[in-house]
Write a structure and sequence with these properties.
seven-stranded mixed sheet; single chain; alpha+beta; 477 residues
């Protein structure tokens, strides 16, 4: 994609910078940012140790890719939005499906108007069966409930009608034509179906390309790949989300084909938990793509509306900046909280081996030396350098923990690809891990005493706080 400074496309750079500074002031952790106007990348920044080349979990932003695949399937004549859902899965139906389940159409899955009062669970051996044997209390099409299981059923239908997994179909129809990354991957259910509503892992530029594709109403490099009617319907409010969300918020303005409407006029977006965004602004001919690790997603959008939108077509003289800085450094925990710390040099009395009692990390032993900690995780070693100044890469030997749980909960285990910084405070060591293919960070505090250690973990960000401690018994000097 072509690059240019923001002034070249009529954006005051100070507005973008003000947004980034506001995020830093609010201690909101951006990971990657890319802004396009008139089809050109006019601002891109990454926040070390995250970078623009890492794939990143999308959580529910995956839904917008899934709905796009459905659009191609409809265009190919493989299904219609009025098809009965149960007609595709007779093998999973109870003897007498509830009346509203029999009325359920693909359209209702797409717009999350299934009529459920409670979302069917995405657990156990067969998620399709969970959905098809669930009770639908309301007439489909009359009752909005944000429903990740509904998107999973779209993925299951796409696999049935195409004979291909969702990702393969997406590659052929969308990813390859748009020049997206070749190593994009999707989490799958126990029955081998892409999770659909979460589980897609892409780079920031892939998100931006999806947004540009929608901005261009399904056209790419002069070819109409997906019909304009589909795109226009996707960005229309088919569902009233104000019953379940504050009507003045960016979740209360309506829901389309797996896209949310936003409060600014004509703006719409796909988004995912912990701050993954694909924001499309047709009136401004702009796309904003972001990865981040946040709990207050609304604060990010409000800051965009406050700082970036007014900067469009509002150039006033020569800006102090010709380009937004591409590289920022994420602060370590102790920097952000103004803790009085020192270099992470262990006391001689701390060195030795410690056996950890039962803990959800599956961390078995820690060996303390002057310049590193050696973790033993399920029988496999991992070396953690003790560096205070730079984010230092380390590979944690345990495989990434499963997060197949509807996209919002996750176990507290290690993720494999990580960067770490360390510091000392009194009789304690701090370790700050950033898992750069995820939204997540871990803050570890290891307290040393004459008899052993106590380890405390706090996962950030988290929809439900993951925080616990465990004991370590000294076994060698």
């Amino acid at each position: 994609m072509k690059r240019c400074p923001p002034e070249a496309v009529g954006i005051q750079p100070d507005g973008i910078l003000a947004f980034i500074q506001d995020m830093q002031k609010q201690k909101i952790h951006l990971h990657a940012l890319m802004i396009l106007r008139h089809g050109q990348v006019c601002a891109e920044s990454h926040f070390a140790p995250w970078n623009n080349q890492d794939k990143h979990m999308l959580y529910s932003l995956s839904k917008s890719f899934t709905s796009t695949a459905l659009g191609f399937a409809v265009q190919d004549g493989l299904c219609t939005l009025e098809d009965s859902v149960i007609g595709y899965f007779p093998e999973y139906l109870p003897a007498q499906p509830c009346e509203n389940m029999q009325k359920l159409r693909i359209r209702h899955l797409l717009t999350m108007n299934t009529g459920h009062e409670k979302e069917p669970p995405l657990n156990g051996p067969c998620w399709e069966k969970n959905f098809l044997q669930s009770y639908i209390a309301h007439e489909p099409g009359t009752y909005f409930l944000y429903n990740t299981a509904a998107t999973y059923m779209l993925s299951a239908i796409i696999q049935k009608i195409t004979g291909k997994k969702l990702l393969q179909y997406l590659r052929e129809k969308l990813l390859i034509p748009l020049g997206m990354s070749s190593d994009i991957w999707f989490e799958e259910s126990p029955t081998g179906i892409a999770a659909g509503g979460f589980g897609l892992n892409v780079r920031i530029e892939d998100i931006a390309r999806l947004g540009q594709f929608y901005l261009q109403e399904g056209a790419w490099q002069g070819k109409q790949l997906l019909s304009r009617d589909w795109i226009r319907n996707a960005r229309s409010a088919w569902s009233d989300s104000s019953r379940t969300h504050d009507p003045t918020s960016d979740w209360g303005a309506g829901y389309g084909y797996q896209f949310w409407m936003c409060q600014p006029k004509n703006v719409y977006r796909g988004d995912g938990a912990f701050g993954q965004y694909c924001i499309i602004l047709p009136d401004q001919d702009m796309v904003i793509a972001m990865n981040s690790g946040v709990t207050n997603m609304g604060a990010v959008m409000q800051s965009l509306w406050t700082h970036v939108l007014p900067a469009v077509d509002m150039l006033s003289g020569q800006s102090a900046l010709s380009r937004i800085p591409e590289h920022y450094v994420s602060p370590a925990y102790w920097e952000e909280h103004d803790l009085n710390i020192s270099e992470p040099i262990p006391d001689e009395t701390w060195t030795g081996d410690y056996r950890l009692l039962d803990n959800p990390l599956h961390l078995e032993e820690i060996r303390v030396s002057r310049d590193a900690l050696d973790f033993m995780i399920e029988g496999q070693p991992s070396r953690i350098p003790l560096c205070s100044t730079d984010w230092t890469p380390c590979t944690l030997s345990r495989s990434d923990p499963s997060y197949l749980s509807g996209g919002y909960t996750h176990n507290p285990g290690f993720y494999q690809t990580a960067y770490v910084r360390a510091s000392r405070r009194g009789q304690s060591l701090y370790l700050h891990f950033c898992y750069t293919e995820t939204p997540f960070e871990d803050i570890f505090l290891i307290d040393f005493s004459d008899h052993g250690i106590q380890l405390h973990q706090n996962r950030l960000p988290s929809a439900s706080e993951i925080s616990y401690s465990c004991l370590g018994i000294r076994i060698t000097d």
